[in-house]
Amino acid sequence: MKILIVGQYRNWALERHFHRYLSEMAQVEVFPVEDKFDDYYHSSVFTKIRTRLGLSGIYRSLAEELLQKVRTLNPEVVLVFKGMSVLPAVLRQLRSEGIFLANYNPDHPFLFSSRGSGNKHVTEAIGLYDLHLCYSGQVADRIGKEFGIATAILPFGFELPEGDYEAIAEEKEELSVCFVGNPDPIRAEVVRAVARAGFPMVVYGHGWTKKLAGQAGVDMHDAVYGLDYWRTLRRHRVQLNIFRPHNVGSHNMRTFEVPAAGGIMLAPDSEDHRRFFAEGKELFTYSSREDMLSKIEMLLGLSANEAAAVRAAARQRSLTGGYDYRHRAGQLFSALEKAILAPADKPSIN
C-alpha cells in the first residue's frame, strides 16, 4: 500500500511518529503542507495581512503542489492530518480519481478552541473523506450520524524510547504541582487557583509571564522540548492535566505522555481516563475545582515509596497497554485496511 501523509513534519509533529511506524507496513511519503503554509504566512507582516484578508494565493499554490505530488507518487491512500491548508476542492478532485481519503484530526472538526485548532477548510471537508480517524468517541459518533462516513477510534499515544526513559528515571523529584503547555483563559484560571491555595505551582510554556503577570506563587518557565520535556513530566510530584473544551469527556496527549514518563498525573475525570488507567493506582482524577485541590494535597503528602509505586504502575500500564505510537500506527493501518475493504454503505467501524 502506498500512503501519502499530508500535514506537518516539524520536530514536534505527530505525523513524524506515524510516518516512521507506518513505513514498516507500507510505502509512505509526506507532503508537509502545513509547514509550507506556516513558512509563507510567517515570512512577513505583509503575507500575514494578505492571507487574513483572503488576498493571498497560497492555498491555490499548495493545492497545485499537492496534486502534483499525488500524481507523481500515485498513492492508494491520502491521509490528511487535520487539513487546515488543504482546499476541499483538492479533496473532491482526488476522490474523482479514485484515491481513498482518510483524515486524522488531533483537535476537533466542529469546535475550535484556538486559531490553530481548525478553520473552514476543516469543517467544509468533513464529508469528503472515506474514513475519519478520531481520538474521541463522541466526535466519531457525530461524524458517523451526520455524514454517514466510516470512523475508527485512534487514541493519542506516546513516543519515549527505553533509553530516553532510563535517562529521566533518576530525575530528582520536586514536591510541586506542574503544568506543561501554553496558557489560555481556562488553564490560567486553574493555575491561579492552585497558587492561591498555597501549593507550589510550576508552569512551562510560551506566554505565561505575560498571562500571569503579578500572580504570586507561580514559578514560570519557557516551553521545553525533547528530553527536557520528558524530564519535566517526570520531575514534579503532580502533573496537572487540564482539558480544553474539545477534550471534555475524552482525553488529550498528556493522558499518555505523563504516565509513560513515570509521572503522577492528576487529570479531569472522563470515561477515557478511567478506561485507559486504573484510578488511584496509575493516575488520579478530579471532578471539580475543590476535588482537584483536595487531590493535590493528598498527592503532595504521599511518602516517597507511595509515589514511586504510582510512577512504576503508570509506566508499566503504558507499556503493557500498547499506548505507544508504534502500536497506534498499527491500529491506524488496520483501520485503513478494514475501511478500504468494507462495503460502502457501512457508516462506522469502531
| Overall structural domain count | 2
Radius of gyration, CA atoms, in whole angstroms: 21 Å
CATH topology of the largest domain: Rossmann fold
Provide the CATH superfamily of the largest domain: Glycogen Phosphorylase B
Enumerate the spans where pLDDT stays under 50 for 5 or more consecutive residues. Answer: 345-350
Strand percentage, roughly?
15-25%
3D architecture notes:
By secondary structure, the protein is an alpha/beta fold. It has two domains: 2-157 and 325-341, Glycogen Phosphorylase B (Rossmann fold), CATH 3.40.50.2000; 162-320, Rossmann fold, CATH 3.40.50.2000. Helices cover 45% and strands 16% of the residues. β11 (265-268), α13 and β12 (284-286) form a beta-alpha-beta unit. α1 (14-22) crosses α16 and α2 (33-41) packs antiparallel against α4 (58-73). The longest helix is centred in the C-terminal third of the chain and has 17 residues, at 304-320. The chain is globular.
